[in-house]
Design a protein that fits this description.
Helix content of chain A: 25-40%
Number of strands of chain A: 7
Low-confidence stretches of chain B: none
Radius of gyration of chain B: 23 Å
Distance between the termini of chain A: 69 Å
Helix content of chain B: over 70%
Shape of chain B: elongated
Number of helices of chain A: 8
CATH architecture of the domain at 23-40 and 69-129 in chain B: Up-down Bundle
CATH topology of the largest domain in chain A: Fumarate Reductase Iron-sulfur Protein, Chain B, domain 2
Order of helices and strands of chain A: EEHEEEEEHHHHHHH
Order of helices and strands of chain B: HHHHH
Shape of chain A: elongated
Oligomer: heterodimer
Number of helices of chain B: 5
Structural class of chain A: alpha+beta
Number of domains of chain A: 2
CATH superfamily of the domain at 23-40 and 69-129 in chain B: Fumarate reductase/succinate dehydrogenase, transmembrane subunit
Largest sheet of chain A: 5 strands, mixed
Mean pLDDT of chain A: 96
CATH class of the largest domain in chain A: Mainly Alpha
Strand order of the largest sheet of chain A: 2-1-5-3-4
Chain lengths: ~240, ~130
């Protein structure tokens, strides 16, 4: 008999449950290097088909299965079971409206992403071919473009928990910085104007949960620091 | 036909009660807490200053209070808060200018300032109570 893993999973069925609760499951260790998503899939396919969660690529690229795992946000598909303390507490991303079980409403999160206008803005006439960028300028996008918008950072931020309606949050600000440092973008001034606000940018108090949570090893805290320095250098 | 979808209640997923405390988070919250504590103790500093400078009798009374248990505890608390706020303040300033911004350094520097505060708390306890 294979080793068993104990999980404690957040459950909530709208219209039926008054309040969310935690449900315990026992799942066999299926293979070495088994990931948390494999355990959730096992529950859904073999034990309780009503368990709801988002998943897609299963390899940390799509950003669907951001969850709170033993108190820290991460992607279920790339989090190995080994090394997790049991029972493994699996909860939805914090401070989000729960639609059902582990599925949360991401509308506001994506709306905040939309607010930073995440596309190339350039007035200058289009060159014959593409807008070119030197390898050095391209390198400056490293650490930003890898973001998959899973929401692990933003929903780990206490500042965003209390002021999420006005504070843009780490993910949106990391993306804002991604366009600010892009040598091809010509709207840097507008972008800086848009975030220069006591709430939108300056609610960041360097709690650094975002850096700690990011499953892609990015650093939104540093990106926010870079925007702040850009704002200072613009003034002087 | 034109059926309205049923609007179900959407509870807020748990946040502060379940999020695991890591060193950088602790360092940040302790920075704010120690800052608030330092401000709240301003009346005490003024009272001490007044006691130490107004008259010899006041001076003796203030000195006696400082050697009492509440006095020693206050000194210990304010001392630890000051050392912590000072060291983490420098850490925040360095990060603000872009020094030590890597993930590794952010974690490491948080541990360093927490360690300094722990060391200070032991040292003050030793100086005051032993």
């Amino acid at each position: 008999m294979s080793k068993m893993i104990t999980l404690s999973v957040f459950r909530y069925e709208p219209g039926k449950d008054e309040k969310p609760s935690m449900q315990t499951f026992e799942v066999p260790m299926l293979k070495p290097g088994m990931k948390l998503l494999d355990a959730l899939n096992y529950i859904k396919w073999e034990i309780d088909g009503t368990l709801s969660y988002r998943r897609s690529c299963g390899e940390g690229v799509c950003g669907s299965d951001g969850l709170n795992i033993n108190g820290v946000n991460g992607l279920a598909c790339i989090t190995p079971i080994e090394g997790l303390k049991q029972p493994i507490h699996v909860r939805p991303l914090p401070s989000m409206q729960v639609i059902r079980d582990l599925v949360v409403d991401m509308d506001h999160f994506f709306d905040q992403y939309r607010q930073i206008k995440p596309w190339l803005q350039a007035e200058s006439p289009l060159p014959e071919h593409e807008r070119l960028q030197s390898p050095e300028d391209r390198e400056r996008l490293d650490g930003s473009y890898e973001c998959i918008l899973c929401g692990c950072c933003t929903t780990s931020c206490p500042s965003w928990w209390w002021n999420g309606d006005r504070f843009l949050g780490p993910a949106a600000l990391l993306q804002a910085n991604r366009w600010i440092v892009d040598s091809r973008d010509e709207a840097t001034g507008d972008r800086l104007d848009q975030v220069e606000d006591a709430f939108r940018l300056y609610r960041c108090h360097q709690i650094m949960n975002c850096m700690d949570a990011c499953p892609k090893d990015l650093n939104p805290t540093a990106a926010i620091g870079h925007i702040k320095r850009k704002l200072v250098s613009r003034k002087s | 036909m034109n059926e309205q979808p049923v609007k179900y209640h959407r509870p807020l997923s748990p946040r502060i009660s379940i999020y695991r405390w890591r060193a950088p988070m602790l360092a940040s919250i302790a920075h704010r807490a120690s800052g608030v504590a330092l401000v709240l103790f301003v009346p005490l500093y003024l009272w001490l200053l007044h006691g130490m400078t107004s008259s010899p009798d006041h001076y003796d009374a203030t000195l006696t209070w400082l050697h009492s248990l509440p006095g020693k505890c206050s000194l210990w608390f304010v001392g630890v808060a000051l050392v912590y706020h000072f060291s983490n303040g420098i850490r925040f300033l360095l990060i603000d200018v872009g020094w030590g911004e890597s993930r590794k350094m952010m974690r490491f520097s948080a541990l360093v300032v927490l360690f300094i505060a722990a060391l200070a708390s032991l040292m003050f306890a030793w100086l005051l109570f032993l």
